[in-house]
Amino acid sequence: MTDSKKSNNGPAFIEHNKKTYELPVYEPSIGPKVIDISKLYAQANVFTYDPGFTSTANCASSITYVDGDNGILLYRGYKIEDLVENADFLEVSYLLLNGKLPNNKEKKQFDASVTNHTMLHEQMSKFYTGFRRDAHPMAITCGVIGALSAFYHDSTDINDPLQRMIASRRLIAKMPTIAAMAYKYSTGQPFVYPRNDLDYASNFMHMCFSVPCEDYHVNELLSKAMHKIFILHADHEQNASTSTVRLAGSSGANPFACIAAGVACLWGPAHGGANEAALNMLEEIKTVDRIPEYVNKAKDPNDPFRLMGFGHRVYKSYDPRARIMQKTCHEVLDALKLKDEPLLQVAMELERIALEDQYFIDKKLYPNVDFYSGITLRALGFPKDMFTVLFAVARTVGWISQWNEMIEDPEQKIGRPRQLYTGDIDKEYVNIDNR
Ligand code: CMC
Questions:
Q1: Residue 45: is it exposed, middle or buried by C-beta count within 10 angstroms (0-12/13-18/19+)?
Q2: Which of 237, 295, 299, 306 to mutate to test the pocket of ligand 1 (most atoms within 8 A of CB)?
Q3: How many A from CA of 308 to the centre of ligand 1?
């Protein structure tokens, strides 16, 4: 961190064992100031303790900003609402990767270079047949992405900027193909090759829903909705899967291995798996009259049940992505003449009841991006177990942008947290026969 970023208000001080230590404080372009504790252990022989990193910045980043109190999300300084309304997914991908919006020529070149990489090495299709047909597509996606480094040796040297750029584009380009193949494999239908004359979202829908025996036309309104969904999920600062990608990358692992690690982390129901879990929950609730029962379960401290698609570590007001997702959900259901979809009624009523409930008000729990995404994705034709895979397709550009930023950061070093050891000491080995 350069001196120019130091706060004008001076350093912070920590007192320990009757000694005072001075800690530099940094000024972000927006948001809370950051106290640098990196030398604290060397100076004072103490660690800091922060399970879940609730107060810890792990890196400096200029990609995405989340203001959780005011419900603001910026990609490279642009408001998410603006980008969703005006840009397509590859335009946003360019922005995340390069830090600026592309002009016409740059956009054309970028689109062409991404589409150039949409096909998978043919040998990789054999990889799929090794999985059970009923495998979860996240399991398949995670495995296949991890295997990319076995196929694309020419883009695994992390010290070569050109190879990093090619790997980034390969990942963005191949993710939809990998995801669609995982879906096709589970249905028993043949894999569908990508079509480079289609835009990113339309091509993905084509690979998922077309079959060789008949024509398939992508509905423009639905592919627009797909672009919006992808943009909404493209990046989200230092969330669990992104931090996983950074941590994996900090050891020098290749980009494909790092993204596979991110996919694995995303799968959990507290993270990307929440969209699948939220739809399961809405299906379980089924009718509006049963909502109070589930709200009470969520409030019961002795019941582990949580309202899925509710709450967020950072957003303590409405998640801006949830607002856009709700609007997109209505657009999709209207376009498909599914306005009376009973689960949408359940979701809207559940949201209304929860937002008026003191428990949710006190804990600042609002719907997050996953609350309405399940209903939307199901209406688009995706089965539940594909929801998190779709999240992974969209988040790949965020992961790889953050990974590139980390590699280029002169302060980057291997991630190695410390611990508060609570185990035994001074135990003497006892021979197995005497235990
Ligand atoms: N339903 C009921 N109570 C909740 C919920 C919920 N969804 N979320 C948090 N709480 C309560 C929680 O029980 C705790 O209460 P107490 O202080 O009495 O112990 C309090 O609110 C704070 O919760 P926390 O678990 O300490 O908060 P966190 O920041 O560690 O967790 C979260 C954030 C997203 C994991 C959590 O809100 C949650 O599990 N939500 C449901 C899963 C979900 O929708 N995840 C998607 C997140 S957005 C997309 C993404 O990141 O991928």
A1: exposed
A2: 306
A3: 8
Contact in structure between 387 and 279 (CB atoms under 8 Å): yes
Query: CA dihedral defined by 375, 183, 246, 370, rounded to 10 degrees?
Result: 10
Q: Which residues contact 435 (CB under 8 A, 6 or more apart)?
A: none
Alpha carbons within 13 angstroms on the beta-carbon side of residue 420 total 5
The residue type at 145: I
- Distance from residue 196's CA to the centre of ligand 1 (Å): 41
Residue 320: closest CA among 64, 98, 52: 64
Amino acid residing at 326 = Q
Residue 48 phi/psi, 5-degree rounding, is: -105, 155
When the pLDDT of each residue in the chain is averaged and rounded to a whole number, the result is 95
Largest CA-CA distance found in the chain, in angstroms, rounded: 79
Q: Residue 332: CB partners within 8 Å, gap ≥ 6?
A: 221, 222, 225, 338, 376, 379, 380
As given in the structure block, the two tokens for residue 159 are 């010290």
Instruction: Please answer whether residues 368 and 322 qualify as being in contact, where contact means their C-beta atoms are separated by less than 8 angstroms.
Output: yes
Residue 120 per-residue DSSP state:
P
**Tens digits of residue pLDDT in 105-161:** 999 999 999 999 999 999 999 999 999 999 999 999 999 999 999 999 999 999 999
- Looking at the DSSP assignment, which residues form a beta bridge with residue 19? 16
135: Cβ contacts below 8 Å, ≥ 6 apart: 186
- List the one residue out of 75, 64, 259 whose CA is nearest residue 158: 259
142 and 264 in contact (C-beta within 8 Å)? Answer: yes
Q: Which residues contact 357 (CB under 8 A, 6 or more apart)?
A: 295, 299
**Is 312 designated active site?**
yes
In the predicted structure, residue 3 carries a pLDDT above the cut 80: no
Question: Could you tell me how far CA 309 lies from the centroid of its own chain?
Answer: 14
Residue from 363, 364, 370, 399 to probe ligand 1 pocket by mutation (most atoms less than 8 Å from CB): 363
pLDDT at 242: 98
> What is residue 2's predicted lDDT score, i.e. its pLDDT?
52
